[in-house]
Amino acid sequence: MRTAVVFALLSGLVVSPAMAADAAQCQKVRMADLGWTDIALTNTTAEVILDALGYDASQTLLGLGVAYSALKENDMDVFLGNWRPVQDEEYKSYFDEGSVEVLGVNLEGAKYTLAVPQYVADQGVKSFDDLAAHADKFGGKIYGIEAGSNKPLLDMVAANRHGLGDWQIIESSEAAMLTQVSNSMADKDWVVFLGWEPHPMNLDYKISYLSGGDVEFGPNFGGATVRTIARKGFSAECPNAAKLFANLAFDLTYENHGMRMILGEGKSADEAAREMIKRNPDKLAKWLDGVSTLDGQPGLAAVKSALGL
């Protein structure tokens, strides 16, 4: 009887699948979402791949400050929207104290600053310092996005920089801001708003980014690098999932066109992510380099099979 039991155990060891790449508690991967279309695309790309690898990925809509707090409190695992340098000062303490960790850079060459329609720039508004002289045409308003994401503008007004101390920052959402921009441009009205790339606004509208906002957003029109960050200890506890996030890098063309599918073509983030993955097999191979399924099988083959590629 003892011999039979030993043989059965040894046989089980021989035929069992490969060792799990991540522990069972890593199966659920919680990602913070801000309601921005770029993060919807990148988050959902990660979600589609993770699910195909056997994980259970989810997204939760949070404000920017809440997203950082949620990482610190272990209520979220990953955030793909650490825009630098615009977030550097306000959220510096999270990095200094080690309550979040950097997994990798997911985008380079981004920009993030105020923009106006090209016809407004053609009338001489090319810098932050040109705005105050045309307060009546702009209605003394700057259109921003979600509360928590407009602090550089709020600080600018509070400090009366560029003579904008009596202006109003309209906080709403990306979608509401873009509706205002679209309606204003249709009527050739003057509007100044928070613009950025990647975003299909750069494909769909003739816009001009304003110079002179180095204090608010940094040089080179708020030239930015976007990083993926995680809660403290995530990479040590879940190295396979962390490896995927470290590999997951995009580019401006990829994101502009993927976001256009969502905003301009009415596709869901899931549909857009799947379509962009299919169009970019080379990227998929790089993303899955060194990444396995949750149960330790080759990752690329599993994802291609799950997605019908």
TrEMBL record:
GO cellular component entries: ATP-binding cassette (ABC) transporter complex; periplasmic space
A Pfam family annotated for this UniProt entry: OpuAC
Stretch forming the signal peptide: 1-20
SUPFAM superfamilies from the UniProt entry: Periplasmic binding protein-like II (SSF53850)
Domain of life: Bacteria
Sorted UniProt keywords: Signal
GO molecular function: choline binding; transmembrane transporter activity
CDD domains xref list: PBP2_ChoX
ABC-type glycine betaine transport system substrate-binding domain segment(s): 28-278
Biological process according to GO: choline transport
Protein name: Glycine betaine/proline transport system substrate-binding protein
Gene giving rise to this polypeptide: proX
